[in-house]
Amino acid sequence: MPAEGWVSLRAALWLLGLCAVLAPVQCSPDRPSWRYISTEVVIPRKELLRFGGQRHVIHMRRKRLFWPGYLMMTQDDQGVLQTDHPFVPEDCYYFGYLEEIPFSTVTINTCYGGLQGYMKLDDLAYEISPLKHSRKFEHTLSQMVADASTMGPMPRLGYEEERDPLLSPANITAAPRMSSKLYMFHEALMKGLCQSTNAFYRTANNVSETVQYMVDVGNIIDAVYRGLETRFYISVMHIYNVRDPVSTASLRPRSAYFQFYSRTLFPAFHPHTAVVFSTAEPPDGVYVPGLYSFCRSGGLVLVFWAGPTPWARSS
Ligand SMILES: *[C@@H]1O[C@H](CO)[C@@H](O)[C@H](O)[C@H]1NC(C)=O
Ligand SMILES: *[C@@H]1O[C@H](CO)[C@@H](O)[C@H](O)[C@H]1NC(C)=O
User: Fold this and answer.
1) Whose CA is nearest to atom 2 of ligand 1?
2) Nearest-CA residue for atom 12 of ligand 2
3) Which GO biological process annotations does it have (predicted)?
4) How do the domains of the chain map onto residue ranges?
5) Mean pLDDT of the chain
6) pTM of the model
7) Does ligand 1 lie within 6 Å of residue 174's CB atom?
8) CA-CA distances (angstroms) from residue 177 to 20, 63, 174, 295?
């Protein structure tokens, strides 16, 4: 149970998603870490959820996260990519809001029994997860905040920052370069190619778990982009479970991997976006979120770094 302590990487990606994906230039170099500050046990009943002493009505719609005919590929003994069929739940992703709470968002999956996901309302952010072995459908609902000790003044998480990109049509003229490009070139639908480097795969050493992680992050990316009236779909997943096709030590423009992506993967699959899951340290001393993005003609590439404890800043 996430009682106190650093939030999971996924939670942090979700919390920082907008900052990192849409406005990297605007993000403070001294990015905050996030902590769970309180946890309560809740029992969702249909669309009702009581927490913080109040009853909330959740409105959710199922969403599609996979492009029709999406491809899942792992490697054979020789490292050659081949179609694989690990178990991937497909019809259990939801997006919604809390009734009577303007600008609230709910991003949840029900793939593994119970509700797993995130809620944001007013200035508050929550993670919800099923309580293991509960026979009463109990869940933990943990509130998350930016950790004040690792940052300067608390950034305001409220309306002005959140509402614009997340829930209203983006103000394209005011939006940062990245999002206006996205908006213009990729229109409303984005097909994403997700890749796990060999090192990232080895953190779990299990294809199903790696896929599950990548899909969960895909779900978060979609939630983030919905604010720009853009949908994100997973169309191809590559898991380098035997070895990397080329070095993934660097993923920067002009690196071996970047060239491999633009010369081999991009022409073969024509994704709008590529997402690389990597353990390699991001460049330029950006230690904390380990998430950066850059644009090129072949599409936007997002890199998620999942080091051992990427969110806990060692002092
Ligand atoms: C968009 O942002 C610009 C610059 O901040 C502002 O002048 C303009 O009024 C905004 N437009 C809308 C529709 O909010
Ligand atoms: C991989 O993970 C899944 C789900 O956690 C588990 O059921 C499976 O047994 C694991 N496979 C191996 C080879 O460890």
Assistant:
1) 174
2) 206
3) male gonad development
4) 5-305
5) 72
6) 0.72
7) yes
8) 13, 28, 9, 10
